[in-house]
Amino acid sequence: MLTTDALIKELVEKNGKSRNSLMPVLQGIVQKEHFLSEEALLGVARELNLSAADVYGTASFYTFLDTVPRGKNIVRVCKTITCHMKGKDDIINAISNALKIKIGETTHDKKFTLLTANCLGWCHKGPVMLVNDEIYPDLTPHKALEIIEEYAKEAHKD
Asked: What is the reported pTM?
């Protein structure tokens, strides 16, 4: 596995050293390390010749660029008014009770983090959740729990 510095250098080589490379570099780090550590943010600032404040400001602005450690499986439930009207609170409560965590928390075994998202772009199929990079539309609490159970089974194989 690459060190954080080696990963940053690889991503900068691939995406370039311009200011426009910041987002793809940050996204690449999150994809490999699941969050942006202080070390990573400072390394990106150094490699792209940007201020640490600029890099952190960008990272902290975007919901999907996590600046704190998250679980292996990040569960994001859409919180738009459409999903709210279609029962997103029931989905969140079911997942929260099953995993014994609240929104913003990670399970003790670091397998799951529960978050909300401002919009996942699937209003016509709400309520919707995203687990890692996989979208799950037309949810019921029962369907949401079945999906979580499948991820839990996969997590036990690791």
From this structure: 0.81
